[in-house]
Specification:
The chain is mainly α and 442 residues long. It has one domain. The protein is 68% helix and 0% strand. It has 18 helices and no strands. The longest helix has 27 residues. It is globular. It starts with a helix and ends in a 10-residue tail after the last helix.
Amino acid sequence: MTANSVFKLSFYLLLLTLFILPLPIGSNRPWAWSIFEILIAVISLLTVMTTPPKTLYAPFKHILPILVPIFLLQVWTIAQILPLGGGPISNDINQSEISLLKGLSYCLFIACCAWHLTDKNKVTTFCYTLISAAAFQALYATYLQYSGESHSPVLSMQLSNRATGSFVYANHLANYLLIGVSLTIGFLISQLTRKNKSANLKRQLMSVFDALLSSKWLIRVSIICIVVALILTRSRMGNAAFFVSLVATSLLALWLMKRPPRVLKWLVLSFIVLDIAIVGALFGIEKVKERVDSTSFQSETRDDVVALSIPLIQDEWLTGTGAGTFYTAFPQVHHYTIHGLYDHAHNEYIQFAVEYGVLPTLILGLMVLYCLYSAIRALKERRDSFYQGLAFGCIMAIIAMLMHIAVDFPLQAPATTVNFLAVLILAVICKTQTNQKQFSVK
């Protein structure tokens, strides 16, 4: 095989990895995330072997604001593990070592994306893979909910009244679908034609029907399927984050875009009316409402976990307790004042601050805000409709994620973490990438 063929093979392996990552219970078990770590290592090796040395570092110029903070986090994790100053910082070296391997794999994933996502065609294929994986999860989750089975056909996981798909936890599926539906909506918007100002109402409505029923129908059906599955997860914040992020991003787009598609507002209205109102009524949006109504401060203990975790941050704000050690650190302040076992904080902001310290958490927060800013700039300044639509999807996904991680722990599952990293990478790409290929392998 030629170097070019091997390079293409590594790209297709990257796409395959993205698609299969959520299948083994969200890759949230040691054997499952080990498969991801091996695959991404092989992909990285094949890519480096077939990339000319003079172009090996060229793609990293724009992706460094993501790669550097993630890499520095792994350096800090090593410092937490090493016996510096008399003993290691980490309360559980084994868990920190596991987190380190995951983190290094995330760095390799970012690097592979930088090497491969060098032109619009590859970015489009990459987005199609993310959309297809989300649509597959949605169809699988919906099938399980209406199959009448008590256990899933894969790994025989027990099913409940909340859709989980191939994940163990319904809220992890909800977060995965949130990212998928955001990118799918953005992709559909990128396909809309820019009409001139003289277009009358009839032509605008025809454009809406074109977006809903023409060759773009498969994308539109994917959105409906993902929304159905999202509703079936009964996730309170998942569904709320979808609605809020959709409305907020739409208003932002109508305000910032220099030449927004004239049918954009009608298309967004169709999402709200068709997907949330009609589809939601058919597939149980009232069940989500019931969960919200039944939620009370007396029965909900996740806010207690957050409150009890604050002393850990105050005591270890500089060093943290060690990557992956919340399970070990939390019993120190638990005192059995709340019922149930909490191995995660159900708030990623709190958990990252507990495990890594305040400064690394702030750096990661700035990284995410930079990616959000890049997508907003692309939405405002890019004239290419593809990158504008991609920016819309990335903004929506980031807003939804920032909301969801305040009440849950989706970033503890490798499948959702990799998906979110993909969104951050795409957010930077839609701002910085030109329409020409940046480098090639010969």
